[in-house]
Design a protein that fits this description.
There is one protein chain. This protein is α/β, with parallel strands linked by helices. Helices cover 17% and strands 26% of the residues. Strands 1-2-3-6-5 form a 5-stranded mixed β-sheet. The chain has a 5-stranded parallel β-sheet with strand order 8-10-12-14-16, with no helix packed on it. It is elongated.
Length: 245
Amino acid sequence: MKRILTFIILFAFALNIFAQVSSRISTRTGVVNQLKTFGRVTYQGINYYPAGKDSLLLQRDIINKADSVILIPELRIDGKPHIISGFKPSAFERDLYLKYIRIPENFTTVSNSCFYECHRLAECEMPSIKQILGYAFFRTGFSRLVLHEGLEYIGNNAYQECSQLEYLELPGTLKSIGDNAFLGCEHLDTVKVNFSQPIELGSDVFWLYRPNAERKRKTLLVPAGSKAAFEAHKEWQLFQSIIEY
């Protein structure tokens, strides 16, 4: 009996040593080897791809029901911090559990189809994003969307068919909106803009295209003294009511 107990203790001790060594390998040498061998490293369910010196782009690895909230971590490789600088295309596409994400301040672009058909995504903090590319938030779950100052461009179909969206506020820094950006947002009834001169709009930006559906009446809120400019601009004449605030 004593021999059996001794064997069990030694076996457990060996397992513990092996686990410690494996841990060191996976967090140091193993991570470096992953980058060299596979061109990516996986950490907390996210794949990271090299994008220049000490810089990485991310893409979701496995959709996990528990990960409804995403906080993008700093990643250290071989003791050295690597900057996570942006998203790969379709990074979180069809993640049906994601509800909230905070995008780091050094990110400047939301990639093509980044959150495509993330139906439950209803809150996204992106303080430094300048460009939202095509289909980035297609069929997401926003009901109220206040886009931040600093944003300059919204791409084609970026928020198309966000069927729960009711209120939209556009920042004064915005320069243009691409084709169909808010096409088919059937409950959108109020758009507030923080620029005094109409910006460039693509085609059918705010159009509701449901077959045989009556055009939904939309209200445009514009800065004081700018109503005439918006009324005279062809693309902004879609709004049935233009009100100064």
